[in-house]
Amino acid sequence: MNAADSRPILSLRQVELRFVQRVDLAGRIANLLGAGLKTQIVHAVAGVDLDVMPGEVIGIVGESGCGKSTLGRVVCGILPPTAGEVHYQGKPVQDLAGPARKAYELGVQMIFQDPYASLNPRMRVREIIGEAPVAHGLVRSRDKAEYVAGLMRQVGLDASFAQRYPHQFSGGQRQRIGIARALALKPSVIVCDEAVAALDVSIQAQVLNLFEQLRADLDLTYLFISHNLSVVSHISDRVAIMYLGRVVELAPTDTVFRRANHPYTQALLKELPTLQPGRRTYQPIKGELPSPLDPPSGCAFHPRCPHAMPRCTAERPLLKEVAPGQLSACHLNDAA
To answer: Is residue 3's pLDDT more than 50?
Structure first.
């Protein structure tokens, strides 16, 4: 491994994103009458540290509302972080300008969850895929048709469909169009935001196989966001478990499935279906995900944790190494 390969292609350092909804004029008038309205702050991402190596696939898993999709948008530059830094190829994204900024914006692309809502219904597939590379000077206008045809064949679509509109395709085909659109800018990193969640199980397998083939052919790096650990296990090298805006466990995929450390990860694994015959007692995670408007003190998982102790309510555990390559944020590791 050379020096370039040993350096993370993406680094996140204490990345936070807060959405602030201030009291508007009507609210201020209502406060004069005793309404008591206050500024609301949603802690969507609450201090994430993560290094992504070139060619690696990191799965980001958690319940709906944990902040994983928001984190993906921060990585892509769609949403600027409120605090912390995102580094691309060793340089802070916020300091990039000119050609370096363009290299980042083209080099990190996103595939969205809904394969229909993310495509312009008034544009033909040829324009959806070919517009951006022509606009950024990667392809000459006269070569666009040939370039789009090659991308469509690469993702398993018939190139003769280039003149069709998105509504004329199935869900799996539309997702392949989204993949081709991301590949059109020749990225090095792709953020897959629940990229197979809206697809049938058989189509999910096909798209996952396509992701693996593209990774091998194009040396891509993936941030694979999902709520399904089973899907993540098939494609990821490492898995980051998120809970209420924070990473609570980070480890190689095999380690997560063989000896998960954090109680939240263990609870997620217990909910996975198995092929073993016999009766099984289903034990869902008790309680509801706390509101990011008012996160719990200390460890955010303590209201739902079967092992919670007094320290958990007062002190937030830090993410630290509990085994080679395995990081976890739980006070039980200190007690042990």
So the answer is: no
Q: Return the pLDDT at 274.
A: 63
Average pLDDT of 273-285? 65
pLDDT category of residue 210 using cuts at 50, 70 and 90? very high
What is the reported pLDDT for 227? 86
Helices 125-135, 171-183: axis angle to 10 degrees equals: 10
Beta strands of the chain (E only): which ranges? 10-21, 40-52, 57-61, 83-88, 91-92, 108-111, 189-193, 221-226, 238-243, 246-252, 320-323, 326-328
Q: How far apart are CA 215 and CA 137, in angstroms?
A: 24
Annotate 206-234 with three-state secondary structure.
Answer: HHHHHHHHHHHHHCCEEEEEECCHHHHHC
Tell the residue number behind the tokens 């969850």, with chain if given.
Answer: 113
Main-chain dihedrals φ then ψ at residue 70, nearest 5 degrees = -65, -40
Q: How far apart are CA 154 and CA 146, in angstroms?
A: 12
Amino acid at 84: G
pLDDT digits (tens, 9 = 90+) for 105-137: 999 999 988 888 889 999 999 999 999 999 999
How many other C-beta atoms are found inside a 10 Å radius of the C-beta of residue 107? 18
d(CA 160, CA 163): 7
Instruction: Calculate the alpha carbon distances from 154 to 23, 211, 220 in Å.
Output: 50, 11, 14
Q: 325: alpha, beta or left, given left = phi > 0 and alpha = psi -120 to 50? A: left
Q: In what order do the strands lie in the sheet with 40-52?
A: 40-52, 10-21, 83-88, 91-92
Separation of alpha carbons 25 and 8, rounded Å: 46
Do strands 221-226 and 189-193 pair parallel, antiparallel, or not at all (unpaired)?
Answer: parallel
Q: How far apart are CA 246 and CA 160, in angstroms?
A: 45
Of residues 288 and 17, more confidence is placed in: 17
Alpha-carbon distance of 131 to 44, in angstroms, equals 32
